[in-house]
Amino acid sequence: MATIKDIAKQAQVSPATVSRVLNYDKTLSVSDETKQRIFEVAEELNYTKHQKKTLKKMPEILLIQWYNQQEELEDLYYLSIRMGIERKAKMLGVQLSVCQLSDFPIDNMTADGIIALGKFSKREMAIIQRIALPKLFVDFDSMSYQEHSLVVDFEFGVIQALDYLVANEHYSIGILSGQEKTKDNQEIIADSRLQAFHRWQSQQEHAIDVVELVADFTVDGGYQVIKEWLKQTASKPSALFITSDAMAIGTLKALEEANISVPMDMSIVGFNDISVAKYLSPALTTIQVPTEWMGEQSVEELLALMTQEKTITKKTMFAPKLIIRESVRTLH
């Protein structure tokens, strides 16, 4: 840390003057030019002193996952992020260990930094924050906990999807959103895409007829909810916006069983662009979240945090984009 003497020497004033300026002593009679010089020197020395430290050994990263292996297979979103993390760590020669929060080695920690992937309750955050290591939360906005995070701008993705449907003359739109809980079952996690949908709807000039459905973020979750809904409703929207591709896959299966053709009878837009989306029949129009890049970027950002002695809490947010394939048609 830069001392008052360091600042005084470079600013060519006395240590007493530096101390009084930095403490905003109103009784001190010095020129604004001198004050500015002192503040600039203080900023410069602080930046230089704290900008970087050298990693003395090959770093080790601990990846905390909230999805287990079976859950990853049911929704490839987190699998893809994890693979990006593993690939980048291997490329950079970083040692990576993986655990569930239930196996968190709080009393036997050897890692130099932590990537926490998924959603966490207040109780779980308290456990993770007991470890005084650089941390990066991926797909979880941890700003309220004063922790760094890397997240998706879901609202922008929702707007792209719905604007595309309206551009294709769809004014009767159903939304299938997801529901989930933290692993300790302490908190229900709201699907932020449903909230974004409501905000988008309130801003439309045309009246939008809306149907709202909720399912688990899995193929079977989407399938079961849509199958039951089709039995109970005679009036169907012309399009469905589905907040995960896993649920969209289940939806396509339920629609096929009910002899509802996509996109001729109903258009579908998914979210995430998981690896299988382009191979579905029809190929799924969806919002692409670059999940593998998220994983790769999280390693780079954590390594940067590990070389900084002092950081300002940062949230990195990136924009998804619409991928147009075959599951939406123009009505008129």
Automatic annotation (TrEMBL):
<keyword id="KW-0805">Transcription regulation</keyword>
<dbReference type="Pfam" id="PF00356">
    <property type="entry name" value="LacI"/>
</dbReference>
<protein>
    <recommendedName>
        <fullName>HTH lacI-type domain-containing protein</fullName>
    </recommendedName>
</protein>
<dbReference type="Pfam" id="PF13377">
    <property type="entry name" value="Peripla_BP_3"/>
</dbReference>
<dbReference type="InterPro" id="IPR000843">
    <property type="entry name" value="HTH_LacI"/>
</dbReference>
<dbReference type="InterPro" id="IPR010982">
    <property type="entry name" value="Lambda_DNA-bd_dom_sf"/>
</dbReference>
<dbReference type="GO" id="GO:0003700">
    <property type="term" value="F:DNA-binding transcription factor activity"/>
</dbReference>
<feature type="domain" description="HTH lacI-type">
    <location>
        <begin position="2"/>
        <end position="57"/>
    </location>
</feature>
<dbReference type="InterPro" id="IPR028082">
    <property type="entry name" value="Peripla_BP_I"/>
</dbReference>
<dbReference type="InterPro" id="IPR046335">
    <property type="entry name" value="LacI/GalR-like_sensor"/>
</dbReference>
<dbReference type="GO" id="GO:0000976">
    <property type="term" value="F:transcription cis-regulatory region binding"/>
</dbReference>
<keyword id="KW-0804">Transcription</keyword>
<keyword id="KW-0238">DNA-binding</keyword>
